[in-house]
Amino acid sequence: MALSIADIRHLFDTYGGLAYSGEPVTQLQHALQTATLAQDSGARAELVTASLLHDLGHLLNRQGETPTERGIDDLHQYYALPFLRPLFADAVLEPIRLHVDAKRCLCAIDPTYRAKLSADSVRSLRLQGGVFSEHEAQSFLSQPYAEDALSLRRWDDLAKDASRSTPTLAHFLAIAESVTKPGEAMLSPGSASAGTSSHSP
What we know:
InterPro entries: HD/PDEase_dom, HD_domain, OP_Dioxygenase, Phosphonate_degrad-assoc
Strand content: under 5%
Pfam families: HD (PF01966)
Organism: Caballeronia arationis
Protein name: Phosphonate degradation operons associated HDIG domain protein
Helix content: 40-55%
């Protein structure tokens, strides 16, 4: 089934307080921080939206706390796509789909990157197939939206600060609504008016 903006808000309202696997933030805090980093970097609205929603698959396919410790890869980068495809174009969907492989690529092309990964990201890297070979990295980089996915991945890695302040979920859902396909937002009245003040969720 297709998700609406209101449905996405409901998912964050219902499950956003869950711990973000092995990290000192919640799922909602992580999403808002990633989107904030994208916005502060001057990213387009589509990439800000992808940053907000890149881990929505965790909320749709809930596997309990820290599934990587149990050897589980929930394939979250793919899981949300069928639910989001009626709502968003590839400029939102492709960075989401590619953000896991972007980690594998960055480990291959940036000698300093892997050392900065959290313990949970290192565990998930193994489950997700490990570091790309040189050929795999070059193949990844040749794909449309690969650069957006690399940017999203770097913001993703930084969005784990329990004390960071962000704009509200409503603020970012209004941005998401602005890049939906015509007639597809299905936002209930007043449910995501833009919040502009910065605070933690």
